[in-house]
């Protein structure tokens, strides 16, 4: 007999990785398991509006997850809580356990193919100036795995679309070349599997060969967030041999990270070198137009009519990553569903997002930008606006100037006065220098992003 609460908790664990956090917490997490009826999982909710939304947006995915966990359960039904007793009277007395996934199963799975989220496709990836090269490279690899872009290394800050591209590649290959073996794992799963193999190899001599077979028999291997291998010598050793075997056999390798290979300092040199053999592309934070286009696309997928005014408001207040922006959109959608009124103006959008934006977006000025930059570099305000020209002072000074020009609408002469009466040409030079470095130097890009987030979330 299946424990329905434990079963639903397992299903929710999977759903939480496939549904936006706010949407999951609002619609899925609050569902209560009732019973099994005619091989269907019955879930209850309190409101008719909630029932309708879940059935329209999440029922198909929930059915898929549930049937994958236990093939004997092929349907999911959402009911109102007041119907609970009615369904309990006709619940199934027994559900077959065959195929049910237990939590205690070994970490190592021998499957060398992956399922990909259907919503993550190239068609749903909005192209902009910050991601056009990464998108083109991903499409080229999907069309010709193991070709000239091997390995493909994609890097960016969190929440800018790396994982979307991996799933888009996987979906494209599965559709156009279904016999191709494509394996997608994040680095944490790779590490955990290797640790489990090492721990249990004394009792099961075949685990080492199964581990090698799993990762070396694929046609395309994707590792998400490869930076987490840094500092783990045993894992790096295993991946080094896996990489070599795949590369020598013209198998496609695709890696993502939060920084470029040369900036993964705790990663072995031989790996960093290999990661640069193919093509390295980055994704930068999207500009205003692209952010609006992304919001429009996401809203269309949710069948929500997003006005230009509200889209602009969300985009203006989303300054860290796309996931936060999507979170704002989900809250707007939820607010509209809850109140029964469309969110069509900035005023209503501001009300819907008041808990987020009012707390996070405080006013800032040039002095706060300078102070935050000084705090980041552990230098004083006197040093940053003074005359010293040592590298440890000049770089922070130029970054602070760049941030002021980017975040505030101040005349160049005024900015020059803030920095000890410097000429406007000096301000232009600093702005242009850091602007170029942000495009070409990952270290500067990360620093600028970090300070900007500190300023906006202070």
Question: Would you give an account of this structure?
Answer:
The chain is an alpha/beta fold. It folds into 4 domains: 4-88, GMP Synthetase, Chain A, domain 3; 132-283, Rossmann fold (3-Layer(aba) Sandwich); 288-360, Orthogonal Bundle (Helicase, Ruva Protein, domain 3); 366-456, DnaA protein, C-terminal DNA-binding domain (Chromosomal Replication Initiator Protein Dnaa, Chain: A). It is built from 22 helices and 8 strands. The radius of gyration is 26 Å and the shape is globular.
Could you name the key traits of this structure?
458 residues, alpha/beta, GMP Synthetase, Chain A, domain 3, Rossmann fold, Helicase, Ruva Protein, domain 3, 4 domains, 5-stranded parallel beta sheet, 3-stranded mixed beta sheet, 10% strand, globular
Provide a short characterization of the protein structure.
This protein has 458 residues and is α/β, with parallel strands linked by helices. It has 22 helices and eight strands.
